[in-house]
Amino acid sequence: MKIQGANDIALVSWGGQHFHSLYPLANNPAIAKNLKDSFPQPYTIHDARFWIEHNIKFNPPQNFAIEKNGTLVGSIGAEKGKDELRTNMEIGLWIGERFWGQGIATEATKLFIRHLFEKFPVQRIFATVFDFNISCMRVMQKAGLQEEAILKGAYIKNEKIGDIYQYVMLREDFNSNQ
Q1: Residue 122 burial (CB < 10 Å; 0-12/13-18/19+)?
Q2: Rounded to two decimals, what is the model's pTM?
């Protein structure tokens, strides 16, 4: 599946074509520091193989490669809530460091939110951002998500405790802006 956006940005289903470019792009401590600890660091060729194979089974896809002009530049994905939280999806993304500051993350987030609301029966899409990741906060705001909460002292990363900023878009807000 391919979702084409503006500025030659596309969300593309993960496949073998991404294998050799994924692990060198993702193997960067500057990326990992902004993500949950479940993101492997170092990011190896085996992690890339697992990720690509893991994502082939989803229909519709809920994790995509982000490409610019056909080149892998990052990843965006979602995890659906369970049980009573099943109407929620949490999104996350990363962009390769050499592609930072080009508006790619904002465009990819807008495309992805549209995909999620069109393909999944969710009412709420949210993202959590560490307090030091100001660039990601700006991406969420530019993509139309609203700051919903500040979870005080909610994370520990690299022996530092900090706040998590939570951003949200509700289906009703998405529909009214279309």
Answers
A1: middle
A2: 0.94
